[in-house]
Amino acid sequence: MALTASSAQGIQMLSVQPDTKPKGCAGCNRKIKDRYLLKALDKYWHEDCLKCACCDCRLGEVGSTLYTKANLILCRRDYLR
């Protein structure tokens, strides 16, 4: 996954429409069949798959922003460390 050297990105929670084709998750590569999905870094994710690379917290739960640094996806706390 090619990420920029250091940046902040928004996270969107989207409701899955029942009449649309399931999207693939960027984290696990399986189809997203849940009621909701996350969109971040121009990709789609299960809520459980979009996690901080350091502390493993679910980024959809801790806010609406994720951070990238050295090809890692991070929460704000770990990004600032």
Automatic annotation (TrEMBL):
It comes from the Eukaryota. Residues 23-81 form the LIM zinc-binding domain. Pfam families: LIM. The keyword Repressor does not apply. One of its GO terms (cellular component) is nucleus. Keywords: LIM domain, Metal-binding, Repeat, Zinc. GO terms for biological process: positive regulation of transcription by RNA polymerase II. GO terms for molecular function: DNA-binding transcription factor binding; metal ion binding; transcription coactivator activity. The keyword Repeat applies. This is LIM domain only protein 3. It comes from Danionella cerebrum.
